[in-house]
Amino acid sequence: MAESLDIVAFLDAFDGEPMVQNAEQGQRISAWMEVAGYYGSRLIYPRWMMIDLPEFQSEDAKAWFNSKKSAMIDMTFDDAFANSEEYIAKLNVELLKLDFLVLPSQRGNVLSYDDINIFPFLRNYTVVKGLRYPGNVRQYLDEVSALTSVKLYDAVAV
């Protein structure tokens, strides 16, 4: 992830007028993602195979993803999906811990490195039907989605 952030910093500063604000919650976000990621990966990976994503249009791509990611979570996608209720319950508890998120609207609708770090994870979780987003987290998702024109997966959630 550090390399990606270096690329973001380079592109942001390229014109001499950086726009992305510094991270304020980097350690908290990293710690949260480490815990939530355990449940999230077991919820998300099987669902990527259930929705229409451009990166999985070929059987080879699906087979590669299934092989690599099922090994990563140490179970089949079918087993992971079968345990969704347990993982959803645990991830819902973790989502309640995101009370420290600062909404873009609270900082002039400007993105920060915190957003670059956490938004992709939260966006991916929107593919999971049954997750309960506390008000601030739902508003955060909607605001960053609107600012970046990056759609959420709510409409195709499984």
Automatic annotation (TrEMBL):
Signal peptide limits? none
Q: Which CDD domains match?
A: GST_C_GRX2
Domain Glutaredoxin 2 C-terminal stretches: 29-157
SUPFAM superfamilies assigned:
GST C-terminal domain-like
InterPro entries linked: Glutaredoxin2_C (IPR007494), Glutathione-S-Trfase_C_sf (IPR036282)
One family from Pfam that matches here is Glutaredoxin2_C
Q: What is the protein name stated in its UniProt record?
A: Glutaredoxin 2
| Natural source organism | Enterovibrio nigricans DSM 22720
